[in-house]
Request: fold
Amino acid sequence: MLGALLLLTVSSFAADQIITGKVRDEKGNELAGATVTIKGTSKGTNTDAEGNYRINVTSAEDVLVFSYIGYGKEEIIVGSKTVINVKLNPGDATLNEVVVTALGVSKDARKIGYAVTTVDASQFTKARETNIGNSLAGRVAGLNVKGTNSGPGGTAKILMRGMPSMNSAGSPLIVINGVPMDNTQRGSAGEWGGADGGDGLGNLNPDDIETMTVLKGQSASALYGARASNGVILVTTKKGKKGDFAVDYNMNLTTDQPVNFTDFQYQYGQGQYGQKPATVDAAQQSGRYSWGAKLDGTNVIQFDGNQYPYVAQRNNIKNFYRMGSNFTNTVSVTKGGDNGSFRLSLSNLSSQAIIDNSGLGRKTINFTADQNITSKLSFSILANYIDERVKNKPILSDGPMNANNGLLLATNIDERILAPGFNPTTGREIVFSDDNYVTNPYFVTSQFVNNVDRKRLISMVSTKYQFAEWIYAQARVGYDNSNDRIFKVTPWGTAYSISSSPKGQGGLDELSNAQRTELNIDGLLGINKSITSDISVNAILGGNIRKNNYEKLGINGSPFVLPYLYSYNNVVNYNRTYEVANTQVNSAYYNIDLAYKNFLTLSTTGRYDAYSTLPSANRAIFTPSVTGALVFSDLVSIPKLSFGKLRASYAMTSGEPTTAYGTSIYYGVGNSINGVATGNFTDRLPNLFLKPFTKTELELGLELRFFGSRLGFDVAYYTQETHNEIMPANYSWSTGYSSGVVGTGSVQNRGLEVQINGTPIRNSKLTWNTSLNLTSVHNKVLHTDANDNTITLGSNRATLGNAVTAFVVGQSGPQIRAYDYQYSANGQIVVDQSGLPVRGELINMGTVLPTLYGGLNNEFILGGFNLAFLVDYNYGNKILSATENYAYRRGLHQATLVGREGGITTGVTSDGVANTKTANAQDYYTALANNVTKVSVVDGDFIKMRQLTFGYSLPTRLLEKVPLIRAVNISLVGRNLFYFMKKTTNIDPEASFGSNLTYSGIEGGNLPATRNYGVNLNIKFK
Reply:
């Protein structure tokens, strides 16, 4: 089929003709940066500093479209002309803007009654992230984006309009060219360690993406059903262009520089109770404690028996971590004619993590094609193949196999003395601390194995038949197939495996293969017809079948018998695992738009879903929506107002349980007793009364554009509420079950979103485009389980249940809960008989999600030069920090300098009498970290220079006589550069190890933050 398509496409090509000319404004001034495109294609160019342009056309019937911000468009048929000069008149060129909406259907922006934002991919392909989802940070009102500090291949945590619900993953539905893709998060670190398995969005190549459209409200995403209750991001890939063969090459090279955000004390060094270590054993026991004497430069013994100067070591992050790198090469070929086009791209990404022996390699092949078979029948295809290999995916949070264990060494220890991390003769790990489970970082980087290989094919075939000008039918099939292979080993010589496994060492943690597929089949009938001269109708009626299948087969075992033979045949004991989950959703939907005189549009949608994960009696639900859009600027004349629209919408969406097979009891076969097999069954009680949870939303919006769209405002207010959320429940063992689920949860979200766009300067020399977005959002948990109990979510290794995140009725969620001081009747701190602080009540400290956030974008174009930067900000959230806790516990925190010499005397006793007992500083701050965990909670507010690019495009006239090359652009790029303001003193306020809502806002044991610098080169060939 691909060969036939190429033959049909190539047969329609014609010879090129070069058109040149100049674009001026109404006063005759040259317009630099004006856009010149061939109508019906994505082929185009921009005018240079003198307003000149040059473009290739393939037919005399081609139509050139000239546009510039704040000016009306001009369309001119090429005919026999070779020079076309154009004068643009002031006007609003955006009034007839078309945007992509649900199901991939394009609609007039003026007729839409809900909030939609489209981001051009060119804004984040220069300074890029390995996960393109992170590139949306600060660009869209209502969208909160955070990455994980987990190295290449990490998850982009994207939340739309606050916390969408309590029992969902939170991530919006990702749709490619109208077909949903699987964005399942493949595993997350928790308080006991683990790795960030990445998500589906992170597999996409930024160079293949044309635009990303964010559907924020429930009305915008209602037609997509269950998963769209978290919002929708529509990804539109680049397609073929009309014309002869065009070849584009894009190279992006960036480096990742680890950043040290700690502000530890460097006055006192290793030891305990004011004493330096005097023996090897004492040095090993105190390797992570800075409760020793003042740093004086004398020699002190270390765990390896050698003497080292007792001086401050401030560069452990610089010395242990390397400069990471990201090198991307993409080549694309396009060709097209009157009846079809195609685009083929090949891309290679090589990404080296900031820790040795870890990185990611990704090869991508992307093919898109469109073809008109007849005047009425057309089809399009997409095939996106990804081969991704992650070497030694970093372990985060807890100590075992975590390469970040050197971040909290005593202040006088140079981390490099821990190298090589193992004894070259015996292979055994060199233990440097008081805990065998805190793995030597150099042992991790040289011996650890944690490889994840993924092969994935995202494909789509769509066909459309136009029965008449006003009616068409469309059928579409999308298939997303990913295969993951995981090979994870506890290496031979690992300290904690030696002590627990005298027959051998290490173990095969996992050798598994997993297949995850999503099949989407949909068909629809569309109508677009004028009923009268004033009234028109646009309607869609369709249906969808979605099938998700997951199957995983794995083995593991321990200990290894022979050294360094990491095979399942080389373990003493081994186990087999098998997982399966198959789900299906059957759906039908409709959408009707009624427009009156092009200024008033009323729309309604409805969707019927039947979920296989719910009991048969309650698995179906109908969810409606209604929207309205009034373009009042067509009715009244307001000075300087170019466009004004009021919009309103109300919608309901639904959701299902996130796991399969929860409606029945399943039995299994256990270990045998005296040769007789035993049986078992789950301790989880099915709830046969569950039904789909729902979310309702009311949204009001206002759009204003002034001075020919030189200044624009988009404001939206919304209120959401979920009902019947499926929540965990605990039962007494006397019932025969320990747990289950109940449909009692409810959460409320309310927010205000503001987007401001402007062009303060626009003349023949300089253009300045700017935009500001702001989001204010507040959520409140209304109900949890049947008794409205607090539901605990996550913690970190430092606090382990003494400070947690949780859903608390009446509070924003997830809420951090930590222990306060105990206070006397007079409000004084209570201490015990040793003068140490006493634990008080467990209190709510604040939500982990920001309540105010947004970004400021600016772009300056001066001739062939362009400068752009993005500043984003984040306010109102709290962070539960393991680093902060450990800094107190281990004598690293600046606050622990108080009382080092004379001790600490503070507070009152339990009877209110002034305390006279002086506590040693080490005992006091250790008790403080253990008992008063609110000291581990810090503010997450920040203002950040997120992105900066500076580029230059070679003038067209310089390349006219250069063979093959028609355009060159080179840019210096930077991302995550610095903070203008942050309230944390020892951590990056964006740092985290968890990649889901459960561990949002929890920090510790993750990789350091990085700054990214580099260069982007784009060459377009003739």
